[in-house]
Amino acid sequence: MEKKFSPCNSRHFQVSCKYSEAKFRSESRKGGDKDMTLDAMVQVTQAEQEARDQKAAVAAQARQKLEEARQAGEARVAEAVSQAKTQAAEMLAQAEARAAQRNETQAAADAAERAALRSQAEGRMAQAAAVIVGRIVKR
After folding, report:
1. CA of 5: how far to CAs of 10, 11, 49, 65, 137, in Å?
2. Is the pLDDT of residue 88 over 90?
3. Stretch 83-100: mean pLDDT, rounded?
4. Does the residue 17 lie in any domain?
5. How many Å apart are CA 7 and CA 45, to the nearest integer?
6. Above pLDDT 90, what percent of the chain?
7. 102 domain residue, yes or no
8. Looking at the 3D structure of the chain, how many domains does it have?
9. Which of 22, 27, 42, 96 has the most other CB atoms within 10 Å of its CB?
10. d(Cα 65, Cα 58) in Å, to the nearest integer?
11. pLDDT at 21
């Protein structure tokens, strides 16, 4: 937010207003034109009130913009969290699919190895039975 210069907001203006008010008071004591002094004081008071009103309006506008920025930031964070959760869920699903595929591949390999071992064992079964029978018969 760009801050614009306003003479009503400046310290110089406030000091100038107070100086003018004091000058008008001193002139009225000297016997100057009292109506002119009163009008000038009213103008100064109105200018000061306008400055306060402008300052309050600018402060309210700044608070509103700050709140809007906070809400926008929270919305961006919420969106980023949502995207991160979605991405994490997708990555988890992909990892589970890869793990399931590896399990299936490994299960198939294990089944093939078991079949080969069983086939070898069955082939040696006759020979083992003959050896056992031969030992029993020799005794």
Report:
1. 8, 11, 18, 19, 119
2. yes
3. 96
4. yes
5. 15
6. 54
7. yes
8. 1
9. 27
10. 10
11. 57
| Residue whose structure tokens are 């040696």 | 124
120: helix, strand or coil: helix
Q: Answer yes or no: are the C-beta atoms of 27 and 37 closer than 8 Å.
A: yes
On whether the CB atoms of residues 21 and 42 are closer than 8 A, the answer is no
Q: Report how far residue 94's alpha carbon sits from residue 91's, in angstroms, rounded to the nearest whole number.
A: 5
Q: Whose structure tokens read 């709140």?
A: 67
CB-neighbour burial class of residue 94 (10 A; exposed 0-12, middle 13-18, buried 19+): exposed
Q: Would you state the structure tokens that stand for residue 55, as one six-digit string?
A: 């300052």
What does the pLDDT look like over 45-61, one tens digit per residue? 999 999 999 999 999 99
Q: Is residue 67 situated within a structural domain?
A: yes
**Residue 113, token pair as written in the block:** 């190895």
Q: What is the pLDDT, as a whole number, of residue 124?
A: 86
Q: Is residue 16 part of a domain?
A: yes
Amino acid at residue number 42: V
